[in-house]
Amino acid sequence: MSQKPFLLAAEGLNKAFDGYKAINDLSFYLDEGELRTVIGPNGAGKTTFLDLITGRTQPDQGTLVWDDGKHDLLKLNEYEIYRLGIGRKFQTPTVYTDHTVMENLILSLAGPRSIWHSLFGKLTSDQSDRIAEILGTIKLTPHAHRKAGTLAHGQKQWLEIGMLLAQEARLLLVDEPAAGMTDEETHRTGELLLSLAGKHTIVVIEHDMTFVRQISQGRKVTVLHQGHVLCEGPVDKVQNDERVIEVYLGRKSKAA
Amino acid sequence: MSSSPVTSRIHGPLLIAAAVFLVVVMPAMNALGWVDHFTLNLWGKYLCYGIMAVAIDLLWGYTGLLCLGQALFFSLGGYMMGMHLMLMIGKLGAYKSDLPDFMVFLGHTSLPAFWKPFYSFPFALAMVFIVPGLLALVFGYLAFRSRIKGVYFSILTQALTYGAALLFFRNDLLMGGNNGFTDFRTMLGANLRDPNTQRILYICTALLLVGTVAGCRWLTRSRFGLIQRAIRDSENRVLFSGYATANFKLFIFVISAMIAAAAGALYVPQVGIINPSEMTPDKSLEAVVWVALGGRGTLAGPVIGAISINALKSWATRAYPDLWLIILGGSFVLVVMFMPKGIIGLPAQISGIITRLRRRRQATSPETTPPAASTEP
Amino acid sequence: MCSIHPIRILRPLFLGLLLCFQSGIAADENQSSVEPVRQVVARAIAASSSSEQRAIVLSLKSNPTPEAVLWLNKWKEGAVFLHEDEQGTVTPVLLTGEAGSDDSQEVVKLADGTPFVGADGKPVRINPKEVEAAETDSGLRKAMKEVSDIAALANPDKAKRVRAIQDYAIGQNVEKLPALLTLKQTEKDPDALRALEESIAIIRLKSATPAERAAACKTLGSLHSLAAKDMIRSLLTDSEKAGDAVTASAARQALKSIEAHISTINAFGTAFRGLSLGSVLLVVAIGLAITFGLMGIINMAHGEFIAVGAYTAYLTQNLFASGINLSPFGVSISIPGFNFASGGDLYFAFALPLSFLTAALVGLVLERSVIRFLYRRPLESLLATWGISLVMQQLFRLIFGPNNVQVSSPSWLSGNWTVNDIVFGWNRVFVIGFAVLIIVATWLVLNRTPLGLLIRSVMQNRNMAACMGIRTERVNMLTFAFGCGLAGLAGAFLSQIGNVGPALGQNYIVDSFMTVVVGGVGNILGTVISALGIGLADQTLQQYLGNPVIGKILVLGAIILFLQWRPAGLFVTRSRSLD
After folding, report:
1. Cβ contacts (< 8 Å) between B236 and chain A: which residues?
2. Which residue among A33, A255, B146, B338 has its CA within the 20 to 30 Å range from the CA of B368?
3. For chain C, what are the domain ranges?
4. Residue C549: which of B66, B143, B167 has the nearest Cβ?
5. Higher confidence at residue C338 or residue C363?
């Protein structure tokens, strides 16, 4: 039914938890190379939507296909979806706290994921260079051998973004990257995401409207409400949409 | 998980010295008569337990899977070797029959088909690894596929062990029932009651222990080890890094089962008996105590724990037979509560307490305001 | 009727029977027209030849009273002595009164029960060692048996009568048929009538006419007679051999019908046993469902708390009887008991609450000293509580000895109740009733008390509850104590149906954990369903495999496969956080 090849197409998704409809007839299409921002009030189903894409939760109804319908994501489990090139940064920073920053990145490096490789594979010089480069990008070079659990909250967010970079995913699903960051860090995160746009397809879920405006200039924004797409369009249009103002901006404006 | 892993603080040279002592010095002293045969035999038993403890630690300390069925794999290994040794008794048994005594006693006149291949030592040796490995593979596949973990995994492995012990207690399994296998005579033509044979078995055990520790050291330091520990700390996150965690867990579970089985196979000819009481859940838990006491998440810890608790047991069951279980149980509670990192972690723990006290004294002396009570680790 | 306990029924009946005897004797004495029974017996004993004796005894068949059986039995047992005076007159007498210094006793005449006075006017005394008792030979005993069999058919106690009717058919003696047919005309009781019909048909299986045999088969088939099964089977072989097609096909039909009935009985019996096993599992697992399910504490010492309850029941029992004697650590302690006469049945009412309280108290101590440090470390709590279980087991051994101790069951647990050939043992009925009681009580505590509300709120969200001002520490403590108390209650209960020893708890720990895991952690309803499911599965497999161990192993296997389908148990508690 789609005329143009979509990278990710979700149609008619439904998911209820004990009677509560977290996702309600949700349809969502994503083009290759897009940087899409998804906003919505608490409980709008943003995180559940990412859970559906990444295989953490199975929907009750609907379809979810990848790469112009080449793969049915609903038939795959978490790691198989990951291997298609879908990476995710979680809402609360989820890194391996007992591993060093370096080890976190090594675990996330693109490459074979077999037991054999994990036993006998060596880190190539290209991969070492890549890790050094990422460490520089996420400003954690001095902390490379620190345990990730001892990092500050913002640094953990950065590390998790770094892990996404190491993965070289086609689609980056970024859940609230700016949470717990200072304004300056937030701004830099935005710049980083902008620099990745085009190379990767990115979906950013965010509450912070300053941040949203920063990264979504001239790009499409999707507003979720009660598990359903309320409206979609350029950020200025969305911000002035009356329904959006009513359910979201009017009630809970984080724009500071 | 609450604690960071205690990376092996026993450095290479010390480890090598310990290996040389166990493999070369002990048997040499025995050959020279400085260590009596009984003690060497006892140490052989301890080292078997040490190997099993390393296998448990590989699962529990490094992967976060507390398996209460390790004694089952250990005993299965022992039983496989025991079957061969039973057949090697030949006509030397009490009934002067080619059949093992218990079969004669049960009224059998011919050897069951599944016993026949065990005349061959290579076959028995292969079975030592194949049978427990296969069991671990099937059970682990089912358990990990449905993502059973944490305490559920422990409870299920406990149930598995319990069920297997019930099965082996039965006579109609034709595995010796209650009494199991005993009264072994020869192994590969050597008299098992000869001190020289026992010394060779001891050396094999020590070599296997050193090999196991070295192998596990390599394993845990590879990228596999990184993934292992990541699974322990946050398995779901590992899935979202693209690793099929179930396969990794299954791999380590089977490896661990085989290591325990190998230890069991060496245990049987040295101790001279194997029966179903060795595979009860309690035996597994006892082995977990060794690991906890020695220090989990390390490789030397489990060995130290296994040797020290079993040495304590050998002494206490003779000196205070009534109190041994109270000592064992009580020490276990204390270790879990106050020594989360075991003996290996003790120096670090003590120095931590000292620095904390010193800091507190420095903090209190100038201002006399008590600092907030520090929380337990 | 059925809900009253047999012993309680039997006692008044027995008394009534005695009264009947006495009034019967009185009535006989007044009736001069009919010779009193005891006089007939006396005449028989005194008769000169054994054939004469036999004839007199057989004459009693026309008047088969229990009294006749009583005197005949006295004769058979050698309690009737023959006194011979100088004239050679032989008088059958019975001993009475106290034995004198020379072992002699006064006697009464068997014929009328009056004291036997000698010619000298003095009571006659007999030394039973010197005077010979009236003897019986095998022919006579057979005659006596005939009389007592017929008398049993007339027994006013229905249960005994039915039993006698059923026994009457043993041996399939065609000569016995008339007695049954006579009885059938007067019998009113439906159970007795059914038994009569069955017995008559069983005897008729031996009838000479094929049509009668076939009719008997048909009757037995429609009666689902279990007793006749083997006889019909042998009839089938015989008639097949003899080429008697009519009888053979009737026998085949009857067998089919009986076998169908047997499988129905077995199915019901299995279901009932499964239900009661499920109830046992439920009672032992319900405490665990609280500590493990609600609190996340893996209490490996749960089994030992069960043992605490069982030993408390043991102590209570002894306290109500002769007292307690223990010698732990070489110190001997003895507490005198109350020596209540009715202690045997009374103590259990006290043992139940005491078991709960004792186990709860021990649980409280354990929670304060160990468990509270391990709330966020489930695997460590597993290990620490295992250590505690070892210590507790050894303490039991040191205090109560390594062997099982005797806890007597109240007498009312030993009977059973049979409906349509299905036997319901009272102990199993008790088990099920007790489980229902505990579940209802637990449900009430969790859902209808302030403590229950606190427990549920803390279990749902510990931090939130703490913020709301709930003293979570206290709730934890009480919840754990409550779970342990339930284990203690289970112990008191298990002391009634099994052995009490130091390893009591070990027998149930694996099963309890399985029950909770299958039910889904934190869900009481799930625990109930899973306990009953596992109980039924276990009994069904046992029934069909005929091997309890294989059945148990298969159940374990089934549980593992079940968890493939529902990894979190029957009822899932969802959470959104990663890990």
Report:
1. 56, 78
2. B338
3. 90-133, 155-243, 287-509
4. B167
5. C363
